[in-house]
Amino acid sequence: MAELPSVLLRDPSSPLTATYVPSAGMVCTSLSDDGVELLGQRRGLQAYLSDGKTLGIPILYPWANRLSANTYEVDGGAVTLTPGVGGVRTDPHGLPIHGVLAAYAGWVVTEQSENQLIADLDYGSQPALLASFPFPHVVTLDITLADRALTVETTVTATTSAAVPLCYGFHPYLTIPGVPRSEWTLQTPPLHHLPVDDRGIPTGEVVDWPAYSEMLGDRTFDDGYDGVPPGAVFALAGGERRIEVVFDQGFPAAQIFAPGNDDVVGLEPMAAPTNALSTGAYSTAVPGRPAVSVFTIRAL
């Protein structure tokens, strides 16, 4: 298989670089600090292309995490999702997961420089995508690498009179090379923890989660949270390295993922909690007022 074109961004003030592959869903495959890789590679780009198995920093769009059923209601009408059609993928319980844009090839780069990349996806022009999420819009990613930080700005612009639900997210797979996973420290601000049922769907219970700073040890996470204030800082640290994920704006929810079978931790900005597309617990991009969200990954 021919190698897909990639875009290498360079921080003008540090040895930090970032690599994006626009034709593979605008996935960030690398965030490297003078040759030291800070993103988990998981099963690699080929598995993302063939099976939707994520790596690096994928966008989960137009919904992140699971939905509780293969149908959801909007404005009195029902939308039916068909697994295997239009990019719909399911988890082991058969629930739709992580939207329809895994490795999607339709992104168009509109601007590119040494340390900035801007790309658009005209979602409303793609009937196969609209079948699963019938809200015409354009989504724009504006990515900048500067001052030892990768900043990702997402803009959702409605292109008809229909408001666009905002349920997407990003999944940075972070790693601390050269330090055992058990010695990594996970830090979070005060949050609201959202317990889930045995299918991974929030039960509706909300539990206060105090500010957290603990060594990971053998603990695992696959937990959702909301109540994330603008500017909240999540962090993973080990040895002399610290990676921060700043939820600058537009990400009131979070997912923390720390599996026991891979040395990665996901500190994931979410525009809405898990299953929001089914429950209606989301904000919208309304006509004439684009919705902007921003997160930043700082390599310290």
Automatic annotation (TrEMBL):
Q: What is this protein called?
A: Aldose 1-epimerase
CDD domains associated with the record? Aldose_epim
The record's annotation in Gene3D superfamilies points to:
2.70.98.10
Q: What is the lineage of its organism?
A: Bacteria, Bacillati, Actinomycetota, Actinomycetes, Mycobacteriales
Q: List the SUPFAM superfamilies hit by this protein, alphabetically.
A: Galactose mutarotase-like
